[in-house]
Backbone:
């Protein structure tokens, strides 16, 4: 018998009961999200961080799909190339902490749309250096400007001091994870 069924788990029942909310109804989605947040208490901070990251990924994915007709992986490649300038797919994969095959697929799709270009890598003949084309730069600038406005909206209830404290706290957690699990984090 499934011990997580709606009849035996009140939290599961609360989530299931709102699964038919009207698309675009922010209040109904907020109610569902609040219940997701409460599934595990404050002592389960990793769950809450992961939940928030997944929400951000979904919103980002929808935004870049609607505005630039690209996948989240493609957007991440464009963003990394813009920030890193000329770099290899392996460097992007390492910086983004993602699988090289995901980056390779995104690079191929972006290259076919002529949003990036590849040049020989003088440091490694087996790889190429990736950079944005003028069209790639234009798409990055447009989407990034809109995303900056979204981020500001998400953080508008936090003061500059709150934002700095949040960043410091998250970095502290990241450092502890790395120092206590270095082998698990190797590529």
Residues:
């Amino acid at each position: 018998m499934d011990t997580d069924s709606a009849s035996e788990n009140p939290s599961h029942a609360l989530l299931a009961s709102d699964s038919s909310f009207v698309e675009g109804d922010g209040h109904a989605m907020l109610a569902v999200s609040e219940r997701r947040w409460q599934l595990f208490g404050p002592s389960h901070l990793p769950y809450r961080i992961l939940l928030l990251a997944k929400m951000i990924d979904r919103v980002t994915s929808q935004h870049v799909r609607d505005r630039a007709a690209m996948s989240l992986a493609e957007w991440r490649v464009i963003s990394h190339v813009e920030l890193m300038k000329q770099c290899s797919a392996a460097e992007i994969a390492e910086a983004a902490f993602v699988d090289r095959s995901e980056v390779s697929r995104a690079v191929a799709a972006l290259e076919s749309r002529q949003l990036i270009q590849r040049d020989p890598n003088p440091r490694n003949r087996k790889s190429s250096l990736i950079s944005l084309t003028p069209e790639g730069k234009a798409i990055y600038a447009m989407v990034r400007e809109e995303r900056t406005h979204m981020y500001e909206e998400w953080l508008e209830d936090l003061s500059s001091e709150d934002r700095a404290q949040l960043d410091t706290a998250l970095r502290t957690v990241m450092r502890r994870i790395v120092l206590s699990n270095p082998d698990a984090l190797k590529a």
In short: The longest strand covers residues 116-120. The mean pLDDT is 85.
